[in-house]
Amino acid sequence: MARLPIYLRALTTLAEDGVTTVSSEELAAAAGVNSAKLRKDLSYLGSYGTRGVGYDVDHLLHEISRELGLTHDWPVAIVGVGNLGHALANYRGFGARGYRIVALVDADPAKVGRRVGDLTIEALDLLPEIARERGVAIGIIATPAAAAQEVADRLVDAGVASILNFAPTVVSAPSGVSLRKVDLAIELQILSFYQLRRATTGAAPPRERAG
């Protein structure tokens, strides 16, 4: 499953370039995996391609999008409207991938009522009502670390079963709730480790491969 978004990204680029069919070797190279692994992954979707022709790019895009749930409309609430929250709210790529930002929520009374794009920032205490009335499926935590666990708890209490945490801390959620974490600081620290290694030893860092 973790490799499907990588295949989707590669296929989207191919489609934008006007490519209609792609071989497993070409798609594997674009995704950074070996072709045998790619063919095995896609076989689970029931997509085997055509010998001598390859995969139909548009058809495979649809299959993977459906498997990832991207053919649905997923209402999203962003909690924490600081710099990161603003950036996420203004990102236009969500809508094209089936994610619709339906609410911006913050605990700071000074921010409540302000406009960000087409939305108005609302109070954190209204989260249960917002989640119920707008059918929020995914909650994004973009708060400072100290507030992240409380926000996660509030999202769970409001019935939100999928949470993406951008706060620089670990939060917990009960079983049955899908919780993913994005930590930009950790990724930068990994890069700085390899940068230092390259500078001191001349060793090339290993290239991260999908899955």
Q: How would you describe the overall organization of this protein?
A:
- It is built from nine helices and nine strands.
- It has helices at 4-16, 24-31, 35-43, 57-67, 83-90, 93-96, 127-134, 145-157, 184-201; strands at 21-22, 55-56, 74-79, 99-106, 115-116, 119-123, 138-141, 162-165, 178-181.
- Helix 1 (4-16) packs across helix 2, helix 1 (4-16) packs antiparallel against helix 4 and helix 2 (24-31) packs across helix 3.
- The radius of gyration is 20 Å and the shape is globular.
Distance between the termini: 9 Å
Specify the biggest β-sheet.
7 strands, mixed
Number of helices: 9
Overall mean confidence score, pLDDT? 87
Strand content: 15-25%
Give the proportion of residues in helices: 40-55%
Keywords:
211 residues; single chain; alpha/beta; 7-stranded mixed sheet; 44% helix; 9 helices; two-stranded antiparallel ribbon
How would the blueprint of this fold be written?
Blueprint: H1 4-16, E1 21-22, H2 24-31, H3 35-43, E2 55-56, H4 57-67, E3 74-79, H5 83-90, H6 93-96, E4 99-106, E5 115-116, E6 119-123, H7 127-134, E7 138-141, H8 145-157, E8 162-165, E9 178-181, H9 184-201
Parallel strand pairs: 3-4, 3-7, 4-6, 7-8, 8-9
Antiparallel strand pairs: 1-2, 5-6
Helix pairs in contact: 1-2, 1-4, 2-3
Provide a short characterization of the protein structure.
This protein is α/β, with parallel strands linked by helices.
